[in-house]
Each structure stands twice: as C-alpha cells, then as structure tokens.
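Lay summary

Proteins are chains of building blocks that fold into shapes. Our project writes down both the chain and a compact code for its shape. Here are two examples, one after the other.
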Amino acid sequence: MSFKPSHEIVIKAEYTLSSNIHNRRHKCHVAANGELLVSKQELQIYNYLLEHAHIHVEYEAPYRGSDKTLFPDFTVLNLTNNAIYIWEHLGMTNSDKYLDQIPAKLSWYAENGLRSIEQGGNLILTFYKERTFFKDIEEVVKKLIS
C-alpha cells in the first residue's frame, strides 16, 4: 500500500470526526473524509489510516491524564483485538521550541501509564525524516493492524 492524494483514497476504516476546538484556525488540510488537520504530514498519515479496514481512527481525541487533558494526533482502535494506540507524530523537527517541549510531553505520557509500542505499550511516536517518512509510517501501520 502506498500514500495517495485524498481524491484517490478508498475509505475502509471507521472514524469519528474530531471535536477538538483547539488549533481550529490552523486546520487547513482536508482529509478524504472531510476531517481538517493541521499539517501535511498528519494529513498523509490520517489518509493512510483511512485506507485500512478493521480500525477506528480519531484525530485529536482527548486523552485525560491525572492532571490535564492532551489531544494526541491520532487515537487508533484495532477493531480485531480491541487494542487502543495513542499516536503522536512529532513532525516539526526544524523548530527548537517544538523540540524542547517533547521531553515534557513524553514524561507526562509515561506518568500517565503509557509506554512506547517498542516497549510493549500503546504509545506510538513518529518523527519526520524526509528520506524515510513514508516507509516509517507504513511500518507503524503494519504493527497497528497485525
């Protein structure tokens, strides 16, 4: 499977449109199902997720922790095994301010019981690397749907 323009996407996934009011003015990328997303990278990931059956995906669904609520990029439910994944795509790798905020966010997730998928948990972290972006996302989605 490969990444395609929105007009070529065949939606197989179940989804819930985002109710998050944050970042509304920055949401200018339209997914195949009409969802508005902040970044082009998020759009590519979201559209790719929409092409997969047996999952339910929501963009910026609230994740409530002990002291606050965050809105991770994607919440994905594997409908076959009921596993829920929280996916943060850390795409603004050219912004020092953005990069400086990542350790606190990761610590918060850990304090609230989330471990990375590599550690057997349900937290997915992806970074934008130009040369491997599409391959990296394909590998993550393979893990989600297996």
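And here is the second example, written the same way.
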Amino acid sequence: MKFYHVYGVKPCLLTVRKYLNSHRNSTREALLWAINRLGVNHLWHIPRGELTLTYLPSGQVILFKGMDDPDSLTSITIANGHLCWLWIEEIYELHDKEDFEKLDMSFRGEVPAPLFKQCTGIMNPWSDLTWIKGQFFDKKDNDVFTATTTYLQNEFLDDADYRLYEKMKLTNPRRYQIVGLGNWGVSEGLIYADHVENPEKNYVEIVDHELQFISVGLDYGSGTPEGKLGKTVLSAVAFTEDWKKVYCIKESYYDGFFLPEKIVEWVLKFILDLKSEYKLDIILHCEWASSAALNNALTLAVIEKDIEGVEVRNAYKSTILSRIDLTQILLGENRLLLTPAVPGLKAAFSTALWDSTPKAKLKGVPIRLDNGTTDICILDAFEYAIIRYEKYLLAAGK
C-alpha cells in the first residue's frame, strides 16, 4: 500500500505453502488480521471463496498458491503491477532445496525502482538436519538475512503466556530450548527418540559386510485431478547374509508431474545404477493401492529390456505401526545403518512424530503425524523395502 501511494509503483505478493487449502486458516487469516488492525479493510476486496486479495485503489494483488500444484507456480501473470515479493509460510514444509529453487527462479525479470525482489521464509525451529539450516543459517551470504525471535520479543503475549514459558523452563527444559528459545530440534512426540539422542551409532561411511541382495521400496506421489503424479520416492536397502545388518544404500526423488513413462525410465535407471555398483539381485516392492497400471508397466519394462536378476512385486501389505516397530528395533539394536547416500531418510528418522491431535487420540492407537513436517514418502518407501523380510530380521536379532 505504501509503495503505491508514496512511489507510484505496484508490488504484488505471492504467498506459498505446501498445500493450497492450508492457506485459508493460516496466511489468509493473518493478512486479514493485519488489514483490520490497520483499519483499511474498506480498501480491500476480500472474496469469500477465492484465494486472492486485491487492493482496490491500485489493483495490486496478494496471491495464494500451494506446492501440491507446481504447474500453477510457473504460469502466474499479474494484470496490475509487478510480482516481486514471495512469502513462504512454514518453509520447512519444502522438503528439499530444489523445491525452493523452483520458486526462487520463477521471480526473474526487471522491476522498477524502488521495488526489489525478496523471498521471506517463516518457520518454527525444526530439526538441524533440515536443508534450511545449511542453506541459510550455516554459511554467510550477503543476499541472505536470518533472524530468530523468541517469546521474549513477542509484544502480543500477556503475563499468563510468560508464566507458561517460565514454567516450561523448569518442567520441560528440552521443549523450552526449542519452543521457548528457538534453538534447532524437535521438542516432543519423536517416534525414533533413541536414535535422535544418539544418531551417530547408526551412521556408517562405507558398507563393510558381504551382502546377499538389494530390496527397493517405491512410494508413488499423491495424485491430482488431472491424473498426474506428485513426488515419487525410491529407497534401497541391502541385507547381510545373516540378516543381522541392514544397509540403507541409495535413495532418489522424482517430481513426477510428467507422463508415467518418465517414472518408469527413472526407476529403471535407479535399478541399473544399483546393479552396476553392487552386482546383486534386486527386488522392487511397489506401492500398489492405486498404482497397478504403473507396476505392470515396470514389470513389462524389466522383461522387455531383459534385465536379469530384477523382480517387481507389490509392496507387502502391513500396518504402519508394524513397520515402525520393526524400524525401531533395527535402529535400537544398531542393525540399521545409514550411509551418506541417504540424507533424506536420515532427516526423516530425526523428525518423525506421533500425531498428538485430539482427533488422532480418539482412534485409540498411535498414529504417525503426516502434516508436512516430515518426509513421510521416504519413510514409506524404506518400510516397503524391509517389511516383507520382518521374520528373518527379527529372528536374527537379540
């Protein structure tokens, strides 16, 4: 508003979250709060259903988009003004640097003075394994400004709020360090808490045992109304001959908003690379609930290309809890070993949480939280790779 009235230019804002529908009760409500607090709601067009806010005197807009439809982020046009500001709310929901770079690269082109291009990312402190810490906090960059605020700088809190934080300092010091002081880490509800406390015991630089075969889990991305696929994940593990050790040796992500044939090509390359490196047979376990056609296409591709020692199967049907139990046992017994080739899985183990919402508690059984804070897809793919062999792995354990 100020830039239009003082300088005669029209900056516009794109607001992004991982899922489009999450804007309604978060970013949109926050902006409406600010508009009302400034007493200028009569100057804004605020439609009930549409996720757009328009400043009436100039036609400037605030747009809302979700990363669940990346195609919509590449074709944004502005009728009035210049789209030069980007706000990513809960930026930790972007699981990798590539997603951020796609957004960042979409803001290219000259803007008139005194406008400038700026991306603002906001988040609560999260695992120190997130790409955000390494990208923005751990290295000096003259184009990057970072700041951490705590409850001590929050002018909207009252005395009761301050007493809550001070009590937390005494009763739950770990949570206070994260929620209260903004230090990196996950505060509570960790599924793999023992691993988070002592992660180094599960990390190895090289595979130093004889291996019997490789198991690969494939988790397809969620679908869209147009029938496209979202991010698809592969996770490869290798078992020692005595079943006592499981090495996590390779992973790959594919932003699958293309033809399914492209996904088949990507999977085949992943498999061929593994065979070239390890010279072992491979069993591919594919998510099958809604992907029978793709699984059949993969089977046919393996046959047509005459790839020896590769078998395609539907993933073994089991509960998420049984998959988590097996993973907890393998991590706890120091039998599940993570190599440098699986940074995504490493991060997911460190951030996986139990769902503590009232709705989840009503179900009466533990539920894994799936709200974007953790890469559930890589966990699913990994679990598909190991769960079929549960009885052998348990029999070889303590």
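What can we say about the second shape? The mean pLDDT is 88.
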